[in-house]
Amino acid sequence: MSSPGSRPAPPAASTLNLRGAVDLSSLRRPAPAAPTAGSPASGEAGGAPEGTPQLRVDATEANFQSLVQLSAQVPVVFVLWSQYAPESSGLLDTMERVITGLGGKVVLAAADVDAFPQLAQAFQVQAVPTALAVVKGQPVPLFQGGASEQEIRALMDELLKVAAANGVSGSVGGAQPGEAAAPPPLPPLHQAAFDAIEAGDYDAAAAAYRQALAEMPADSEAKAGLAQVELMQRLEKVSAPEADALRQRAAEQADNLEVQLAVADLDVSGGHVEDAFNRIVAFIGRHHGPERETARVRLLELFDVVGITDERVAKARQNLARVLF
Which of 55, 12, 21, 19 is nearest to 155 (CA)? Predict the structure, then answer.
């Protein structure tokens, strides 16, 4: 990864909204408290007066889910950086200065993509530095490359408005960032599912969620977890060359259910949620019988993956109702 030669301007404040990809909170799990290590670029955090809560942490694979959970209380701004990207150090310092001035209403998570490339993959980041926020588990793109302090302050102001509109208006106060949102223990089957996911055993995770649903059919967390694990199972079987071939086949075979559903999976995983929903709804509108029902069920599962409160889900439900009735 490298710093882009030129950067797009940060989005205007009025365009900032919760339109990320898959809901990152849907597979939350208990995790160790986020450490309060210092600046990854300089060795220790600077600029905060004595007694000010440490609002900058190093994001790692171990504390990533903890930080995502924390975003239910305060926005967490991830800056994905690299020692090979010259703008990284200055951007981190500016972000820390701005966020420290917000008095605990935002937490900064610095993610070294050289040490933890999986974090870049999780956010599908192609260049560094890149800044994005997570609010209530949803990624909110901010900007790529550098940004001035004035631009960052404007974005943070708008981010706080977006967060408040979504019920996220807390503060870490005097607590350390990873301690502010200590989650309660999970039900045993949910914990078993998370442990299996950590081990890469999606079959075991799916089995745990199915058992949870058998015991409590109204368990919405288990339903969403199962839908996402099943998506992960399907995506695990598709290599990059196969993905390209699937997209080509989908363009040529509009009535091939298997191919259309496979590409919808790819679209959801890549953040093209509306494309995925529109693809399946269009298929349902053209077909009747078993294939139509199979497509409808898959669409409902993808609704659970994205999050049933997401505005794109609400729009797709309306479109589905129109083609069904």
Answer: 12
